[in-house]
Amino acid sequence: YEVWLQSAGRPPAATDALFTPSATGSASVDVPGPLRGVRAVIVTPEPLGGSTSPTAPAALSLRVPGAGRGS
């Protein structure tokens, strides 16, 4: 899985946050960098090593509160 940061009017930006869930399906990952201007944090299943753009639909998409208000 790979974490992406979505800003307004832009395609999701790749991060270096890659992870593999455990056999029980649990996982944790840090969201890298500041979230200023980020509207959503997206997680997609990706090949090992990650991708330069999402290759699958989002498994998780979280709206970032305050996006677009200079937070």
Structure notes:
This protein has 71 residues and is an all-beta fold. The chain has no helices and four strands. A four-stranded antiparallel β-sheet has the order 2-1-3-4, with no helix packed on it. 14% of the residues are buried.
Sequence-ordered SSE layout with sheet pairings:
Layout: E1 2-7, E2 13-18, E3 38-44, E4 60-63
Antiparallel strand pairs: 1-2, 1-3, 3-4
Please describe the structure with a list of short key phrases separated by commas or semicolons:
single chain, 71 residues, mainly beta, four-stranded antiparallel sheet, globular
Short description:
The chain is mainly β and 71 residues long. The protein has no helices and four strands.
Q: Could you give the order of the helices and strands?
A: EEEE
Strand content: 25-35%
**Helix residue percentage:** under 10%
Sketch the major β-sheet.
Answer: 4 strands, antiparallel
- For the biggest β-sheet, the strand order reads 2-1-3-4
Mean pLDDT: 92
Q: What is the chains' assembly state?
A: single chain
Overall morphology: globular
Low-confidence runs: none
Rg on CA atoms, Å: 12 Å
**CA-CA gap between termini:** 27 Å
Structure annotation, total helices:
0
The counted number of beta strands is 4
Q: What structural category arises from helix and sheet content?
A: mainly beta
